Amino acid sequence: MKWLNENLEGAVGALLLAAIVILITIQVIMRYVFQNALSWSEELTLWTFIWFIWVGIAYAFKERKHVKVTFFQDLLPEKMKKYLEVIIDIAIVAFLLTMTYQSYKLITLPYVLSQKSVVLNLPIAIMYASAPVGSLLSVFRIVQFYVVNRTKVSSPVEV
């Protein structure tokens, strides 16, 4: 369980990135060496990339590595900076929970549930599911940060 907590996003992200590289490499070889492009690899690469993005968002929240513009935050005293970061995280959690709810509503619409992808003929809801899954995982990592580190506040990546 500890391994999963520490490595879930990194492992899944690495697998997805490896799949993207392999798919693109195969497609380039097929197109330019064998003069015969694969019809399915581009769509599968797109789906894999979308899932990779959402897993990467959660990973960045876990590592507290999202880029932050700290111009106004730097003008505040240290104590106020901590409060501002908490307020910003609450706003982010609210946004992500709204995203989860709205994505779920979209995915469960009858016309979305019956929709299939053009080439792979897979349910389009699989691709759409990346948004609520990634959002919930991000919310979990933000809340986990505050549960584990009640007094610490991360140092932002400055722009």
Please characterize this protein's 3D structure.
The chain is mostly helical. It is built from 7 helices and 2 strands, in the order ααβαααααβ. The two termini are 35 Å apart. The mean pLDDT is 92.
Order of helices and strands: HHEHHHHHE
**N-to-C terminal Cα separation, in Å?**
35 Å
Number of helices: 7
Provide the gyration radius in Å. Answer: 19 Å
State the major sheet.
2 strands, parallel
- Beta-strand level of the residues, as a percent range? under 5%
Class derived from helix and strand content: mainly alpha
- Rounded mean pLDDT score: 92
- State the helicity in percent bands: over 70%
Low-pLDDT runs: none
Label the overall shape. Answer: elongated
Walk across the major sheet and give the strand order.
Answer: 1-2
Q: What is the number of strand segments? A: 2
Supply the key terms.
159 residues, mainly alpha, 2 strands
Topology, please?
Elements: H1 2-32, H2 41-63, E1 67-68, H3 71-74, H4 78-107, H5 110-113, H6 124-128, H7 130-148, E2 157-158
Helix pairs in contact: 1-2, 2-7, 4-7
Please summarize what this structure is:
This protein is mainly α. Helix content is 73%, strand content 3%. The chain has seven helices and two strands; from the N terminus they run H-H-E-H-H-H-H-H-E.
